[in-house]
Design brief:
With 71 residues, the protein is of the alpha+beta class. Helix content is 15%, strand content 18%. A hairpin with a 5-residue loop joins strand 3 and strand 4.
Length: 71
């Protein structure tokens, strides 16, 4: 799945976010890179590399990093 989960996350479609971790980001995520929130619901969202682009990145490998960001 390409859906990221963060209960009651604060993001809106079009928000620019950067990923952070105390370890290593999983491929294909890159540090110091802006990703854009899309398809936002109350508890889920997807990430796009470019604002307005249909292709998204996400999935289970991203969820643990967003949980770190949302704590």
């Amino acid at each position: 799945t390409d859906v990221c989960t963060g209960a009651a996350h604060p993001f809106s479609d079009g928000d620019a976010v950067m990923l952070a971790t105390t370890g290593v980001l999983p491929t294909p995520a890159l540090p110091d890179t802006h990703y854009y929130v899309r398809d936002k619901t109350a508890d889920t969202f997807k990430l796009a590399v470019f604002l307005g682009v249909l292709g998204a990145m996400g999935g289970a490998f991203m969820n643990r990093f967003f949980k770190l960001l949302l704590k």
